[in-house]
Amino acid sequence: QVQLVESGGGLVQAGDSLTLSCTASGRTVSTSNMGWFRQAPGKEREFVSALTGNGNTFYADSVKGRFTISRDNTKNTMYLQIHSLKPEDTAVYYCTVAQGRRVGMRASEIGYWGQGTQVTVSS
């Protein structure tokens, strides 16, 4: 059974940086296509970033240049570094594992979701 546990969210100020973590069990991070989605209040869940098993990275246009996805294979953990946080980054951030060989840039391509971690950015 795959379990994804996110951590690192919190209340921060605009301009701050934050690193979210996602520790996986039942799935090897280094060989899985994993990523992050987020859902802001009153909005649909949206793709943020993906990291494939062979190391390719993908980012939503809205976060390019500010977000960095990475992983530590020894800890079986994936990370999302967020810089220059903006109030519009306020959302619940979800760790994901894609289905099969899909990259996981669409919610329909996701096989497993974490429980989410709240990020709130004050202006």
Question: Uncertain spans, ≥5 residues at pLDDT below 50?
Answer: none
Helix coverage percent: under 10%
Shape: globular
Average pLDDT, all residues: 97
Describe the structure.
The chain has about 120 residues and is mainly β. About 0% of the residues lie in helices and about 50% in strands. It contains no helices and 11 strands. Strands 2, 4, 5, 6, 9, 10 and 11 form a 7-stranded mixed β-sheet that branches. It has a 4-stranded antiparallel β-sheet with strand order 1-3-8-7, with no helix packed on it. A hairpin with a 4-residue loop joins strand 7 and strand 8. The radius of gyration is 13 Å and the shape is globular.
Summarize this structure as a short list of keywords or feature phrases.
single chain; 123 residues; mainly beta; 7-stranded mixed beta sheet; 0% helix; 50% strand
In a few lines, what is going on in this structure?
This protein is an all-beta fold and 123 residues long. Helix content is 0%, strand content 50%.
Topology:
Layout: E1 3-7, E2 10-13, E3 18-25, E4 34-39, E5 46-51, E6 57-59, E7 67-72, E8 77-82, E9 91-98, E10 110-113, E11 117-122
